[in-house]
Amino acid sequence: MRQEHFKQKTCTRDATAVRSCAVASGFLCCMSLFLAGVLHAEIRPIRYSGPVSAWPEVKRADLFTAFPIYMEEISQDLGLAVEALVPETAAQIPQQLEGNEIDGIMVQFTDLVRLQNDLEIEPAVCVVQGGQNSEQIYLITDPSSKSVADLEGSKLIVPSNREFPQYFLQSLIDEACQTRPESFFGEIESAEKQVNAVISVIRRKADACLVTRTTFETMQAMSPHLTNRLNVVAKSPEYPRATLAFRGGFDRQIKEQVILFLTHGFKKKARTRQVLVLFKVESFCVYDAGLYQEARAIVEKFGVKPTD
């Protein structure tokens, strides 16, 4: 009896030991996988600090954007996989930049110019065109108007989801009529989308509207019977679908200024961000300098400084 009892206790101990070893082994295995994942995340080559020839070493970049099509173009241009994250608001972006949690954000072309002017960091930045094609703003109307001067006192529709058309509009009006848009047009109304603005002109609910060349050409391809009834009376200078990048090793003070600007210089909604801001980028430049400078000159002349 004692021998059988001893054998049972021994078997129980052995089974417990086996189970303990299995649990420990499983725990170690999980920890190994976890640590491997952490190490992989730490060494993921997403920040770039070398010459442009080394771009293939970069696998992907994480950023905030509401314009996936721009990111697709940028990915193709740079050979870089870009992961687009779309937040509901832009309020959390500065903090995540501060903690290096993301690699970039999207802002507007005009904000790029303001950022350079306000912080005086021109030598520390370079611009990368987001896509091979530049962009333009069209001032369109029905066929009864042949020039900008014909629109005096008329009703204009301006898309509300973009700020930069208004700067170019002011330059067009000033060049043609030497006056400001609010004095030139009888009424200026906002539309949520560019397509809605164009339809308002087609339906004679407005006399003119602003639209990007890309949107207008898309509408021409899809509905030529409608767009053929419209007339382009003015075009803005071309401007790049730009990204803003900092050289590697820029000082901490500049980064703090940038984060402060991002915190106080933008609206709360993130859908209007159009310029990718990358940290730890030393040098790369894929853009037409003349095209960029001409568009920048327009913004500097007619733009307004951001307010807190």
TrEMBL record:
Pfam families attached to this UniProt entry: Phosphonate-bd
What residues form the membrane-spanning segments? 21-41
Q: Which domain of life is it from?
A: Bacteria
Tell me the keywords, alphabetical order: Membrane, Transmembrane, Transmembrane helix
UniProt-recorded name of the protein: ABC transporter, phosphonate, periplasmic substrate-binding protein
